[in-house]
UniProtKB/TrEMBL annotation:
NCBIfam families reported in the protein's UniProt record: NF038123_dom
Phylogenetic lineage: Eukaryota, Metazoa, Ecdysozoa, Arthropoda, Crustacea
Signal peptide range in chain numbering: 1-20
Protein name: Spondin-1
Name of a matching Pfam family: TSP1_spondin
Superkingdom of this protein's organism: Eukaryota
InterPro entries: Reeler_dom, Reeler_sf, Spondin/Thrombospondin_T1, Spondin_N, Spondin_N_sf, TSP1_rpt, TSP1_rpt_sf, TSP1_spondin_dom
Subcellular location: Secreted, Extracellular space, Extracellular matrix
Keyword hit for DNA damage: no
Amino acid sequence: MRWALVSLVAACLWAASVRAQSSTCNRAPLGTNAPKTPGSNNFTIKISGNPAKYVPGDVYTVSLLGWRQEYSVKKFTGFLLLVEPSRVPRDVYGPQSVGMFQLYGDALTLYSEDCPNAITQSSSAPKSEIQVLWTAPPAGSGCVIFRATVVEARDVWYMDDGGLTKELCEEEQDNPDMQPTIIDPCCACDEAKYEVTFEGLWSRHTHPKDFPNNEWLTHFSDIIGASHSKDYMVWEYGKEASDGLQQVAEWGSTRRLESELKRQSNHIRTIIKARGLWYPNVNGKTFAVFRVDNRHHLMSLVSMLGPTPDWIVGVSALELCLANCSWVTHKTLNLYPYDAGTDSGVTYDSASVATLPKGKIRRITSTFPNDPASPFYDPTGKPMKPLAKLTITRQRVYEKSCSDTDILRIDEPEFEVSDEDADRPECAVSEWSQFSPCSVSCGKGLRSRTRNYLMPQKAQMMMCKRQLEENEMCAADLLYCADSPDGAFGLAPDFDPRICTVSEWSPWTPCSVTCGKGHRMRSRRYLDRMGRKKCDTELVGKEMCVVAEAPTCDYDNAEVISEDCAVTPWTEFTQCSTTCGKGVTARTRSYLVPSADHSHCNVDLRDERECMAHRSVCFDPSEAEGECGETGEGLEAVG
């Protein structure tokens, strides 16, 4: 009961605060009993940038100004400019934030002593405009409304009518991981043209777990999609993949899906096509343009993430129409991988195993599939980083009346493919060539086809940008490479076997022991240093050797060196390090494979021994100290 009473008192105090903030604030000018004049006489509130919404925390310039004519401007002597909540939700306890006014520091404005969140004049001198800074409230504050009272003369004043009231609502910040809900129907009468930018983010640094060893195969395939109506879905989360989508997901081939789209032309405004991002340009950008109208206001596109069993990235039915009957100006979306449900592989290099019957299209996450072999698996459930980013920018709005739109619905729909240069004569191209043979003899590889400009010089001069090469994955007759570390994949298509050429074998080393059984070794090297990265030719040869046993053989001190620590024979000993007296001589050897990891090897690579120079007598102590390094050692007096 006590808490209920406290709550009631708090609510009453809050209500009183709100009333004091708005309804109890007397905004009528002092010194007159005249009622307000209807209208605004073209006095208006203006906010810098003329925003439709405010960004929380941003600073705006708010002006109150008179109507400007050719040779004069309307002036006013007094004013009160106030900002308050548009409406007060019942679940808000305490005054609602409406931001904060800040004076410019001129002599025209003061904070009002009678009304909170309000500015008034400092004198009754005529003025044509006043300005004040306003810091927008924090996120979640809702809509605010600016209201103004303007005194033009003693008994002529205006309040709230026309341009003397201006409402601003909070701009909801887009979540780049979320799509907006579909608006049905779309009430936009105008049409819009967009550019879509697809940017690859996937790399060994962003997604290091089990990143493909065969990096030359990494890619985002050619992109295919459409702007379409709500009555047709190019692909859909939680549904089965069409045959066309399966071809994109497994091979990066867009032809069948494009045919499916063309058969649905009455539901499609633009077929979206963009070239893929292939190694080494996987983190590049690719572009396409498309159009939308109030019937075809959704956008979908898809690209294969390769090499994978059937994984895709893209967006399905992205809404571009706004509830206020306009079009989105700019939108960014992060893209994550989806399993198309047509192949059961869980790793990048899984061999093809068809899923029968087809599964549903599902988002791949750090917990799905729940298999440590998945390159995105994380037992902590940590959110994944995006693999790509989609940026959609409105380029142009085509003004239409809604009556024009209704007429268009009766006619055949306007249908186009997003190849802007296709209709330019100077950009004419030949037919596509036949696809090249698969680049590998076993496993998965690449194949490509090309076409050419019919007038290459003119096309270059006119900066034509048509796609001249098309790539897709392919499978050799032999589906699995027994000798390949990746099994399902063959050698890179640009592989040159000449880089695996090696030198002649070196002579055999002496036997590793001086008596009994040991081993001897020989080595060779790649003539091209790239061979160490791409070839697996044997570089070290080893065979057993036997040295006749001798009575002097010291079995305990015999040196035994493992194969992975193999060394060259010892060099000859160096000359003695001094010219007189005692010094040091040394011999060295090195590892046969210098690039290997020898941190575990317990092998001496340098052998130093004491020696005596040819002259055992030095001429004087200073010469002996300089040359021998040991004063007085081995000296004789000189008479």
